Amino acid sequence: MGDRAETAALAAVESLTGWWTLAGVDSAVGDETVNWLAADEVTDPAKPAATANNSAANAPVAPHVPSIAWPNDIATLRQMVRDGAPLPGNDLGPVHIPPIGAENSAIVIISDLPDLTDADEATAGTSAVHILLERMLAAIGIHISDCYRTWLATTVPATGELPDHILPELGHYMRHQLGLIKPTSVILLGSSACKALLDADLMNARAELRNVNHDGRNIVALTTFHPRTLIARPAMKAQAWRDLQMFAKRDAL
Length: 253
Fold this sequence. Notes:
- Pfam families: UDG.
- This is DNA polymerase.
- The protein is of the alpha/beta class and 253 residues long.
- The protein has one domain (2-22, 70-252): Uracil-DNA Glycosylase, subunit E (3-Layer(aba) Sandwich), CATH 3.40.470.10.
- It is built from eight helices and five strands.
- It has helices at residues 2-23, 74-82, 128-138, 167-181, 191-198, 202-205, 227-232, 237-248, and strands spanning 107-111, 148-151, 185-189, 210-214, 217-224.
- Strands 2-1-3-5-4 form a five-stranded mixed beta sheet, sandwiched between helices.
- The longest helix is centred in the N-terminal third of the chain and has 22 residues, at 2-23.
- The radius of gyration is 18 Å and the shape is globular.
């Protein structure tokens, strides 16, 4: 058991430190670019093939009647999550983890589920997933502390996955949250966040920056792989780095 745990820990560390080498940010900054994207791209066999429909869209969301009034400010939202209020995604597990970060952030990061380490102030931000995300953002000049980080569900189901049939409701609720924060851009991590907010396949949505629409206001959206996918499949970091570079140039598009 000890050997297996040690092997797993070493693999996680290797994956994290490997990001810098792969991204070309572990050396002094110079005029020469790093041609690390020359390697063949790796397609995730677990993901479905891209569809022919490349219209970005924000497919219409079915009307939803909440069981209670949704909060009209982030402070109330956080407190309701902690109190176990029957908000969408707040009833899938015993631990309730509210969003993290300043509510006036220009960038919102959305994933499927929180990391249980973030439930405790003493362990928040210490997971391998968090550390890798922090380094990914730093590579394009974004400090994770400047971002508002949230998730489709604020509790973690026993399966560790969100069932597809609740994604439309979670996406509708997430749009409500975006209306409270009013960011200029969002980063969607993983296929569930992509499906809930864009109603699109992850591999297809990665081809370009999309828009999340809320009350007629378009918010620039990048879709890329969840850091836990990159830890499990380090070869995909090259594709993620290309995604991040596209996001870094969003103001010039």
